[in-house]
Each structure stands twice: as structure tokens, then as C-alpha cells.
Amino acid sequence: MTTRTRKPSPDANAAQLTGHGGFSLISNQKLLQIYSIMVKCRLLEERSRLFLENGKRARKGKACSGHEAAAVGVAIDLLAEDTIAPSPLDFLLNFIQGAPPNSLFREMLVRSSGAAPLAAQLEAAGAAALANKTKKNGKVVVAFLGDLPASLGFLEEALHFAGVHQLPILFVCRNSAASKPRGQKKSAPRQDLALKVQAHGVPCITVDGDDAVAVYRVATESIAHARRGNGPTLIECKALDGRTHSKTGSGRQGSPLVTKRRKADDPLKNMEEYLTRKGLFSKEIKRKVTDGFNGELEAAIAEARSCPESEVRIGIALSS
User: Fold this and answer.
1) Is the dihedral of CA 231, 195, 71, 112 positive or negative?
2) How many independent structural domains does the chain possess?
3) What range defines the domain where residue 189 resides?
């Protein structure tokens, strides 16, 4: 588990709850900040894969492309004192937390055993949340679970513990066609998850996992809910397109219909369309973010390649 070291942004409270009535409007500055970080996450994912492929290496963990909405929407406004439990999204989350690209690329050169099993991570996350509640320090824990697992046994245990003790913790999972057991109806895992969560007294909120603004709103409410001492929440980021999350593995790419929907439900494209409707998006804005960050990535890659592996310190373990 890692504790954030990034200082909260000046606009961190732009979309906090206004009493019990709901949200204030999300500022244009915050919307553009969300988009900018999503673009950087996508570029970082793509460049990291090329970086390792050129070095004849494979990165541990699943591809993060397509997960930007969930990662950025939930993590962008967490405070420096909050804790994020490791997950398959560690690569993006560490960047959102403030880790510079050069340190991420250096870490990729180190062969590590990967993160602890998810069950152990959830146990550690629950212990951290219990400590926060005992100290009444207002800190929250966010446990990113990745894809909804076929077996919910260990997740039920974590939910039960969090619900009984009303812990300040958020569970964030992704429910996609790729995570559904073969032969099971598409709606079955989602319905089963909601019923199990309710049985343990934990609110379950389902949100479009490809809509960064929707995820941000739900996460803001859930985090505020936890900070006030009102207990845990599970956020289910439902993938509408059923995209797979790795370019390797079985090699199956799905039907043409799924491929077409995958392109249409790209969270980055969705965010661009949303900003366009608000009159905030332009190709010039995207070009500035892309060009500026590409230059930073080039420098980071050059630095990582020049650094002997023996001098690289293992600090970030990418989940397998």
C-alpha cells in the first residue's frame, strides 16, 4: 500500500458537496485538469510499452489503456495523507500520485515479484482504514480492485469488515465482459455484486467506467461520505464495451461489433466530446498537452536508459 506524497491541487475542492443537496458545478479548470492527466496517462501507457518492447521486456501487469476514467476520476483529488491500496492500475495511480515519469521508467527496468495477492492487499487496506477511524484523522483509504473477480469470497470478507466497523474506505472495481465467467449472463455478475454488497451494509454505486466526469462526481461524493465518518462505499465502474485489458494472452480480439464499440467508448474520446459540448476543447489544447508531455517522456526514457540497473531502487511494484 502506498500513501500519497503529492500535494493537493489548488482546485482540489472545486466539486465538493454543498451540504446535503448535491454537488457544486465542476469548474472548467478542474475539467481541463482531468482531461490533461488522462491524456498524459494514455501517452505514458503507450510509451512505456514501446520502451519495454524495444528492450525485449514485458511489463508486469495488465495494460492500463482504457482505464484512465476510473483512475483519474477517483484519485485526482485525494489528499497527501490518504492511502491507495495497490492494484492492476498501479502504473497510472503512481503517476497521478505525483511519481515523475523518469522514476517510473527506471522501475520498469527492475525485475520484481509484483504486488501481493489481492486478498492480502484488501486485508492491509482494511487495517489502515480501521486505524484512520480509531485516530479520527479524516483520512480515507481507496482500494482499486481492477476487474471484478469471478470469485467474490475474499471481497465479501473485506466488505463485511468495512461495513461492520463503518470504515472510511472506498472499493473501486471494474465490471466488464472480460471479467464475466464464460456462460454466465452479462447482467449476472453485476446483480450478484450489488446483492452481496447490500447484504454487508455497504452502498454500491454503479457508474459508466468510460465517463471520467461521472466517475469524478461519484468519487467526490463517496470520499466526502467516508471523511464524515459515514462508512464505506463500493464504486462499480461498469465497462459498456467489454474491452479486453491486455494486448497479450489468448490473442482473441473479439467480434467486429465489440471492436467497433470499444473505439466508440474510449474514455479519452468521451472526455473530448464532453469538453467540446461545453466549448472547452480544441485541437490546440490537446496538441499543447501532448507535445509538452512527449518531450518530458523522451527525457525520462533517455535518463532511464542511462541509469545502470544496479542503481535502480525498487519502490513501485506493478501488479501482476
Assistant:
1) positive
2) 1
3) 2-241+254-311
**pLDDT single digits (tens) 194-209:** 777 878 889 999 999 9
- pTM, two decimal places: 0.78
Cell representation of residue 219? 468519487
- CATH number of the domain where residue 230 is located: 3.40.50.970
In a domain, 154, yes or no: yes
Task: Name which residue leads in pLDDT, 193 or 147.
Answer: 147
Task: Note the pLDDT tens digit of each residue in 163-184.
Answer: 999 999 999 988 765 444 444 5
Asked if the structure places residue 316 within a domain, the reply is no
Better-scored residue on pLDDT, 114 or 276: 276
